[in-house]
Amino acid sequence: MAKQSCCHKKKLRRGLWSPEEDEKLMNHIAKYGHGCWSSVPKLAGLERCGKSCRLRWINYLRPDLKRGTFSQEEEDLIIHLHSLLGNKWSQIAAQLPGRTDNEVKNFWNSYIKKRLRERGIDPTTHQPLAEPAGAAACRAVFGDVADLIPPAAPPLADPMPPPLDWPIVVGAAAPPSRSSCYLQGSCGGFDMDALHQQQHCVPAAPVVASASSSSTLTSMAEAEHHCNPAGAGGLPWLELGANAVADAGSHVDSYAGALDELRWSEYFDGAFQAAASQQGALQQAGQQCVYKDDVAVHFDVHGLSNWC
DNA sequence: AATCTATCCAACCGCTTTTAA
DNA sequence: GTTAAAAGCGGTTGGATAGAT
């Protein structure tokens, strides 16, 4: 017999959220923050499991969500990032302010996949579905960027580069030391040198991650931190994810700690705006950057317009 | 008008990772 | 070092809706 979910065990409500439930959750988080998600339903007076509350908040109620249709630029960015990262939806969504991993995943599965297939591109491998017609289709679709696909592409039996389970970092400059085979040329069947050239790889200002998927307070710390150039001076880049703050430095640790003391209402009033304005400025500059291991992959968002 | 089909997307499920005790 | 709980993540499901027949 299949294992039952926590909601089943506790006979909690499931399915779509009512407006009343949304309001309860919103009010609770606005007043107290979410703290421990497992205690949220009880404190907020909801007959839901904590997991369900967390998901509802992240995917629907969060005030910094953009919603609405994806722009062409966002679509191009998703395709590009997917070619680099695979189905790492949370990492892809982190580069798209106001978008959630669920939203990006749904958009990919319902729209982009189909569109790529129509144009002769395998959405999994980002390679032409067949040669030579596929290559022609690819060129027609991608324009000059199609040159990135090596002429002697590996057979479809093993068409993908090595698994991409590397941590994504946003920031300005690649830290030294370790490097990735995949990002250093053609060993993975993908010419990253060409990609770097295509993407006008230049040092970029630090990029503030969206609040999606990662700890909102961590994002707050990052947002606030980036808004303070003096404080950011010693930190040319910051890592996303659970260990981000610790890795970035002790002063960020203390900053995040202090932010824990903030009331949620202050967060609403200030941090989202700060993050949004910072992200907006960087987007205006058109610069984005992801990391595999310690290697930066910079790319010009505007330059992706020919990607698909 | 009724029914069928396709599409979209919110929510769930279950696994993995992280954190705390 | 071990264990349990919490959080995070990606895959999948199912209900709502629109369009076609």
Automatic annotation (TrEMBL):
Signal sequence region:
none
Which cell locations does it reside in? Nucleus
Using the UniProt record, give the first listed, main subcellular location: nucleus
Q: Which domain of life is it from?
A: Eukaryota
Q: Which InterPro entries match?
A: Homeodomain-like_sf, Myb_dom, Plant_SW-associated_TFs, SANT/Myb
Tell me what this protein is called: Uncharacterized protein
Q: Does the keyword Cytoplasm apply?
A: no
In this protein, which residues make up the domain named Myb-like? 9-61, 62-112
Q: Where is the HTH myb-type domain?
A: 9-61, 62-116
Q: Kindly list the GO CC terms recorded for this protein.
A: nucleus
Molecular-function GO terms, alphabetical: transcription cis-regulatory region binding
Q: Sorted alphabetically, which keywords does the UniProt record give?
A: DNA-binding, Nucleus, Repeat, Transcription, Transcription regulation
Cite the Pfam families for this sequence: Myb_DNA-binding
